[in-house]
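debug: dumping io for the single-chain case to check the tokenizer round-trip. Nothing else runs in this session.
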Amino acid sequence: MLKRMLSKARVSMTKYNAQLFTAFIICSLVPLLAMGILSYRYTYRNAVERILQVTIRSDDLLNTRLNDRIRQVENVADTLQYDMYSLSQSHGKTSSELNTFNNVRNNISLYKSTFDFFHVFVFLPDDFIGSSEGLTFFPIENFNNYEVSHDSADALTSSDWFYQDNVKVPALAASGTNSEADAIGCARILTDQSTHRTEYAYIIFITTDELSGLMRQAFTDTQIASYIVNEQGTIVAHTDSSCIGNTLPKNFLNMITSQGSEFYNGQVHFHVVQLDNGWYHVTELPKSYIDSNIHVLVISIFILFLITILFVVLLTFVLSHTLTKRLTVLSSAMEAFRLGKPYPESKEKQLVHRGDPKNYDEFDKVGITFLEMKDSINKSMNSIIELSLTQEKLRYKLLQSQINPHFLYNILGTIDNCIILGKLETARKMNESLTRFYRLTLRKSGEMIQIRDELEISELYLELEKLCHNDTLSWEIHTEDGIENYYICKFTLQPFLENSIHYGFAPGIDKIHITIDVSYGDDTVIINGVSKEPG
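debug: decoded output
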């Protein structure tokens, strides 16, 4: 039973470390993976929100600059309204009209250079002085060449903003060599309410490249698209100049004007702000841009997570090895004890930590229990061995005590018969052999005697038996060189010889021959005996 228990303990202990390690890994990695996934999702969401906030903040700054420019144009348009009123009041007064005209022209030139306008166009009726000036002032019918809606209820207080491609500026009025460009115009119109006759109009133009440049400065990454679209869906400025003048699909324009300031469409985040002139500034932030910006963060999280996993695995391995180290020593000690092999005392000391017994843990208690059990079993086994040896000795002595009286009884009976029959010489020889036999057996009083002495005792016994059986008994003994010096138990051969003689003389068999052969075996001495009828 003990052997079976130790065997089961040994088999389970070979797997215990792996099972403990696996349990630690599962118990630590599952929560760690869950925390890692949650942390990644939380960090990813925060990173996305932060990128959106940064982008929206940059977009708000850009919108501020765009609105500042729009209000600047509106303010100049308001100022020009006063100049145009002065010019209309001086109409018909030649000298006064000419002076006012020159003052207005100088003011317009100052506004254009100061505020870096592309150009300012003023449209006057034909009867106004300077209406055909051709640089800044043009006839009123030329106003129809521009895509002004004329829908404003009060054209002098409300500007009409529009997009015009390929606006041409007279060469003498152009700044530098830029005499033609796509432009954004702010128009003001004075119409007689009774006659519906246009009294005058003026347009302040700024280039689309100017606004596009502001957007490119705000968003240097080409993945971000920023553009301005008017009420008709025409792109009037864009970070990509090739897109200027394109028209957005009607459904997409409705989405921009109705979804609010922020919305998602597919893989793109849109931020829409309505400018002061009623147009919409749209910023497109694709998911690929967000992913590319948090790529470093994702890699950092992955590396940190990988390092954490490696640390947990290493720590788990160390802890499982530490916890199972003494169990492994205990298993080895139990296995060695089961097989009867010596186990180093230095390793047995590892079963119990030295120190205050109050601080012993369960492993220490198991080690102490095993050592106590081992000592108890060893003592019990030693006691059993001693009892077995004592029992065998008593049994051997009992056998000897049974052999000698029985043998002596037979010999004395034979001597008595010889005397009765008058075979005095035979009786004398038997008495002499018997004396020699007992002298030799008494002289060899030890339990172990040499093989030569055992063979000599056996020959004396055979001579006595030969006298008892009238010389019908013969024998021969063969031994290998040097084997006579080995020790065996006394009277080992005599019981076998006695049985051979007793059962050898059967009906019809008057003579027997006994052969004794003593030889070497594998770490043993082999004694073969054969009893047969001579011939």
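debug: round-trip ok. Residues 5-13 have pLDDT under 50 and may be disordered.
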